[in-house]
Amino acid sequence: MYLPSQRRMLSSMTVQLSGRLARSDRRSPGDFCPIDRAMQVVGTRSAMLIMREAAYGTTRFDDFATRVGITDAIAASRLRELVDAGLLERRPYREEGQRTRQEYVLTDSGHDLIPALVALGAWGRKHAVRRGTPTVTHEGCGATVDVVMHCAEGHTVDEDQLLVTG
Amino acid sequence: MYLPSQRRMLSSMTVQLSGRLARSDRRSPGDFCPIDRAMQVVGTRSAMLIMREAAYGTTRFDDFATRVGITDAIAASRLRELVDAGLLERRPYREEGQRTRQEYVLTDSGHDLIPALVALGAWGRKHAVRRGTPTVTHEGCGATVDVVMHCAEGHTVDEDQLLVTG
């Protein structure tokens, strides 16, 4: 337990620990927050894992349901939402003697989500690891892949150099 | 619609589009997938937005509920889950004349989630943008911050150089 003066110091240390990632005002960002907007689209485990499967090259409805481990009803609902949100697109295909079906492939917007998938996987590998965890590696050198924060001017950015504006 | 031979070609193109992010086998990763493990912890909009607020420096229960826009019951449940999962820790504090209360601060594990928050925000800003969207910038140079994929050997990694092993 901290007394008021200690708590204020702790609170200021906490801000330091959390870097400069502080908004210039405290209005609720709501729909204007791009993290919130992203989570409105991929803010469920099933949606994110369908995106993982699409990045792995899965295209068929049955494969999405089986590999994510969800019911057909949930798979149908999530795939429709991800198509509507522009992360996947449907393409018709037909196997000989079968009716025409739809497959699902990543759009450019879907491809742009891959760094977020890699970042979540890097966190999971570090903090919630179990033996046999799959690892994303760099083809050729074989080293583990993570993400680093980088600005448009090409600088590597540490957490304590982050500033939220707007 | 594609005939079988065309569809196979399309399928192979799809794998190309999705880069080399293909598992060496097709077993269902389940609990072994680090993305899945991460989404078991922060796989709800409210959990991820509480982590965003903690990164912004929010520590008080009431502020989490108000700034994320969730009920006290949901805030209490999410905060408890995030503490149990090791992303936040409780610290007692007391204001003069008040009873002792708990505040919530990021642990090291919680700090390690920030690149994933930045990656989701970068996706949201690019693909689900609205006017007035807050932007994460690099203090000093002011340029927008995104994430880049990077391997442990220090190479920048493109999507088509990703390989999933294990």
- Overall outline of chain A: globular
Mean pLDDT of chain A: 80
CATH class of chain A: Mainly Alpha
| Main sheet: strand order of chain A | 1-2
Biggest β-sheet of chain A: count, sense, barrel?
2 strands, antiparallel
| Strand proportion of chain A | 15-25%
Helix content of chain A: 40-55%
CATH superfamily caption of chain A? Winged helix-like DNA-binding domain superfamily/Winged helix DNA-binding domain
Low-confidence residue ranges of chain A: 1-29
Helix/strand/pairing category of chain A? alpha+beta
The CATH architecture of chain A would be: Orthogonal Bundle
Greatest contact between two chains: A-B, 109 and 109 residues
> Which radius of gyration of chain A do the C-alpha atoms yield?
21 Å
Q: Terminal Cα separation of chain A, in Å?
A: 36 Å
Order of helices and strands of chain A: HHHHHEEHHEEE
Task: Give a description of the structure.
Two copies of one chain form a homodimer. Chain A is an alpha+beta fold. Chain A has a single domain, classed as Arc Repressor Mutant, subunit A (Orthogonal Bundle). Chain A has seven helices and five strands; from the N terminus they run αααααββααβββ. Strand 5 of chain A pairs antiparallel with strand 3 of chain B, so a sheet runs across the interface.
